[in-house]
Amino acid sequence: MIDQAAEPFHSLGLNKAEQVRMDDHTLMGIRADTLFRYDGCGRMLRSNEPAGRPAPHLFLGRTMRGHLVRSGAAVPDAVARRLAAMTEQQPPVGSLPVPPAVRAAVREALERHALITGEGGGPSYRFSESVAPPGEVVQVTNANVEVVRDTYPWLYQGLAGWEPCFAVVRDGAAVSICASSRIGAEAAEAGVATLPDFRGRGYAVAVTAAWGAAVRATGRIPLYSTAWENLASQAVARRVGLIMFGADATWV
Q: Which of 86, 162, 178, 226 has CB 3.0 to 4.6 Å from 211, enough for a Cys bridge?
């Protein structure tokens, strides 16, 4: 999450060669590796973003091939094994949202270990081969970083940790941005935010498309995800032409 004033969106993409060699489940694993930092045992420690927030107790990714489970470092081994076994016993995935019964079972298992303060989750997308033209956007660099100083001050204070970054600029100030909220070895996750007075004009679509193309050019896979309840973000994904490849759920 990158916007103090507005909930950000995220983006993801694969070029044609990547789509041939990589299935959706492998891509979900790469996404999990991009989202979090891990200890030597493969347990999640913190989110892989500049702020470095604590990782959730559990990350559950779903594709039509099955489930992917990552447990937090503080979760006892016995609980982590139980949760992994629980997901392995689930029937084949028929739809991507995590079923209510699975959510309830995971929450019950985790609450025996620690207080659960929240749950989240939503769809994950990849780019199609053809992406809408980015429109009128500018890349934010050290040379023009002043455009985000007043509207996105956190970005102005540490641009290097969020690059590449693209913006729609009006009257000298960025009103919509897409930046790299999490950067991994193979992929980057985008964070998109638009000022309230400038929403509904296609700006988020433009900056997301530009960001995805730029990340592809670096050799990484651009990633896009959002929450089920964030209908505006899902609309951005549709307008960019993204394809849902999976979904996730988290417990914190």
A: 178
pTM: 0.85
| Neighbouring-strand partners of residue 176 | 168, 194
Considering the domain architecture, whether residues 142 and 225 belong to the same structural domain is answered as: yes
Enumerate residues 6+ apart whose C-beta is below 8 A from 101: none
What residues does 188 pair with on adjacent strands? 183, 222
Q: Are residues 100 and 147 in the same domain?
A: no
Closest CA to 23 of 31, 109, 213, 54: 31
Domain encompassing residue 179: 138-246
Task: Sort residue 73 into left (φ over 0), alpha (ψ -120 to 50) or beta.
Answer: alpha
User: Phi first, then psi: what are they for 67, rounded to 5°?
Assistant: -115, 150
Instruction: Give residue-wise pLDDT tens across range 224-252.
Output: 999 999 999 999 999 998 989 999 999 99
Task: Read off the pLDDT of residues 207-222 as tens digits, 9 standing for 90 and up.
Answer: 999 999 999 989 999 9
On whether both 166 and 219 belong to a single domain, the answer is yes
The answer on 76 and 50 residing in a single domain is yes
Among 122, 155, 172, the domain boundary falls at 122
* pLDDT band at residue 11 under the 50/70/90 scheme: very low
